[in-house]
Amino acid sequence: MQTASTTTVLRVMNERAVFAEVFRLGQASRPELASVTGLSKPTVAVALANLEDAGLLRQVGRRAGPAGRSALLYEVRPEAGHVLAVDIGREFVRTALTDLVGEVVARREEPSRGSRDEDLVAQLTRLADDLADAAGISRGDITLAVFGTPGVHDEADGSLHLAPNLPGWERRNSVARLGGITGATYLVENDASLAAIGEASYGLGRGVPHFVYVLIGTGTGMGVVIDGKLYRGFRGAAGEIGYLPIGDGDPLLDEPGTHRRGMFESVASAPAVVSSGQRLGVLDIVTAKNVLDAARAGDEAAVRTLDREVDYLSRALAGVTAVLDPELVVLGGGFGAHAGDLLTGPLLERLGRLVALDPPRIEVSTLGAEAVLLGAVAVGLTAAHDLVLDRAAPAGIAGLSKS
C-alpha cells in the first residue's frame, strides 16, 4: 500500500514538473522536457499522456530534428482554465479575463461604484458576466479570481482595513462576498503589492531581486520585493507608506480625515497635490494633471507645488532606502506615472543629500495603469495552474507541494 501511494505521489510530482516546463517554454517536445526536468524520456512520455488525457496539454505538430527525425510538440491548452483579474481602484474598476496561458480574452474598465459595498459587488458581478460572455464561457467556468484592493485584507475576520475609500468593507466577513461573484476560488491582495508583482513579472522589476513599487494616485502605497519575493509583513500591511508620519507645520495635516487616510497620503497623493496647488496659487486647477501641465508650461506656482511633492517623497524614500536598501524604486499609479519626468531627477538629487550611500535607481513604470491588473494576472496564473493540476490528480493527492 505504501509503495503504491509513493508511486502515485511521484507521478503527480512528475506531471507538475512537466506541466510547468511546457508552460515556461510555450511549446516543448519530449526530448526537451527530459533534458530540462532531468526525468527519463519514458517518465516524461507517461506524464505527457496523463496531462493530455486530463485536458491540460495538447499536441501542436512536430519539430524537425537531426537526421530527419521529428518530435511531437506539446503546449498548455489555453481553454483548460480561466483567470479573472480585478483592480478595484478608488476611481475605476479594471477587469480582465485570461485563459490558462495568460492571453487576455476579454477586458472591461469603468468608473467604480464602490460608495456602497453592495453596489460594488453588483458591479463586479455584472462585469464578470460580461467578460465570460465575451469569452464564450459562463461565469461559473472561471477557475480563479484575483481582486486587487486598497488596504489590508484581514484573513482572520474577513474584513478590509486601511481602505477608507471602500466604505463597508471593514465589516467582519465582508470580503467573503467577493467569492460569490464567480463561485470560484478567489484571492484578495493589496493593489500596490500586485503592482509590484506586475513589475516583477512584466516590467522594470524583471530580474531585480530588491525593489519597491511606489503607487501615487488617489491614494499612496508601496509594494516591496525582497530576494525576488513579495514581502507582506506580519499583518500583511508592509508598504502602507500612506501612514508614514510627516513633520508638523503643513496646513494639510489639520484637514479632516488626515489621520484616517494617513499623514503622508494626505500631503503626497494626487488630491493632496491639487489642494497644495490651490493654496499656492495655481490657476484653473481641478485635477493633479492640471498642476503637471502648468508646471511643464513653466507656471511658478505649479513648480513650487511639485517641489513640495518632491520634498515629501524624497523624505519618505530616504526612510525606505535606509531600512530596505532597494536597488530600484519604480514610480507608478495615476499621478506617479504621469509626473515621472518631473519627479525622477529632483528626487535623485534630493535623495543624494538625504541618504549616506548612493540612492537607488528611480524609474517610471512602463506598465502604467495596467500594473495592478497584470500583477493580478501573474498571481492568478500561478494559482490557477495549481488548481487545475489538483483537480486532475488522483484523490488524496490534491494540495501536493507545487512545482
From TrEMBL:
A Pfam family reported for this protein in Swiss-Prot or TrEMBL: ROK
Gene3D superfamilies the UniProt entry points to: 3.30.420.40, Winged helix-like DNA-binding domain superfamily/Winged helix DNA-binding domain
SUPFAM superfamilies: Actin-like ATPase domain, Winged helix' DNA-binding domain
Matches recorded under InterPro entries: ATPase_NBD, ROK, WH-like_DNA-bd_sf, WH_DNA-bd_sf
Family: Belongs to the ROK (NagC/XylR) family.
Name of the featured protein: ROK family transcriptional regulator
Source organism of this protein record: Cryptosporangium phraense
